[in-house]
Amino acid sequence: MLESNGGEQRPDTWLSLQLLLDSALPIGSFAHSFGLESLVQDGRVSDGASLRSYLEGMLRHSWATSDLMIVKAVYADGDHGNEGNYLYAYEIEKLVHFQRLAPESRDGMEKIGRRLIRLAPELYPGVNFRPLQETIRAGGSFGSFPLVYGIICHTLRVPLRQAAEGYLYTSVATSVNAALRLISMGQTEAQRLTAALFPAIAEAWGAVSGMDPSEAYSGMPLSELAMIRHETLYSRLFMS
């Protein structure tokens, strides 16, 4: 079972969370655009304004309603005394994982998550991640990024709201960093855009905070099609 501290929040919880949100975290997310590259080549995302529109849609109709449901399921398991045996979370992970229509996207989420669980013992040496690692090796979990992220946050006693908004933030930051390599946009504009999306992040979490994880869905068909078509692009900078 993952070690805990009796339900009390650790004094360094806030700083521990920052490691997971750092864009320099070496888990390979920089190599994935999750369909954004296709949208740029199609001309649907071409500047800061269209990028913001895309990110607002992903926040409200994809990341919050799908990935965050895995994070919520992790906390539901833990709050019912099931730490180390996140059976409900594994079920929701499977539901969300197969809702990702593009094989590249499913594979990308697995690669990022599995790199994170390999890195986690180095970042948090006081936590025993062996049960989760064994579950992944045995095929009981895909080890996808939102699941691993959620379990780490819950084990560190990060409040659910902070974990959820942190996940949405890192999703935005990863997409903005990808856009910097795909469209004409400077670092200052990128940071301004990210900051401007803070209210949308809070609103996206607020909209799904009472949602049952079993109702997870993604309502961004254009994005899904872009992810599917990515592997057929003539030239590619990203893996997905």
Task: Give a verbal description of the structure.
The protein has helices at 13-21, 36-42, 48-79, 87-99, 103-123, 130-137, 145-155, 160-180, 187-196, 198-208, 221-229. By secondary structure, it is an all-alpha fold. Helix 3 (48-79) packs antiparallel against helix 8. The chain starts with 12 loop residues before the first helix and ends in an 11-residue tail after the last helix.
Give a nutshell description of this structure.
With 240 residues, the protein is mostly helical. It has helices at 13-21, 36-42, 48-79, 87-99, 103-123, 130-137, 145-155, 160-180, 187-196, 198-208, 221-229.
Question: How many domains make up the coordinates?
Answer: 1
* DSSP helix fraction: 55-70%
How far from one another are the termini? 34 Å
Give the ordered list of helices and strands: HHHHHHHHHHH
Strand content: under 5%
Structural key phrases:
Urease accessory protein UreF; about 0% strand; mainly alpha; about 240 residues; 11 helices
List the helices and strands and how they pair.
Layout: H1 13-21, H2 36-42, H3 48-79, H4 87-99, H5 103-123, H6 130-137, H7 145-155, H8 160-180, H9 187-196, H10 198-208, H11 221-229
Helix pairs in contact: 2-11, 3-4, 3-7, 3-8, 3-10, 5-7, 7-8, 8-9, 8-10
